[in-house]
Amino acid sequence: MPSTPDHDSPIEFEHPRGTFAIVFIFGALFALGWFAMYVFEFMARGVPQH
User: Fold this and answer.
1) Count of domains in the chain?
2) Which of 3, 10, 15, 34 could form an SS bridge with 19, CB 3.0 to 4.6 Å?
């Protein structure tokens, strides 16, 4: 009888380090862009005057 592959064992997926690096770089760029927008657009206007 030929052996059948064991379908009950979980398959482990390992992401390469490059994937985490790309996600980290894009996250850091997004955070820096958001911070720059916050500082130069909103903080430059000053406190709202009522």
Assistant:
1) 1
2) 15
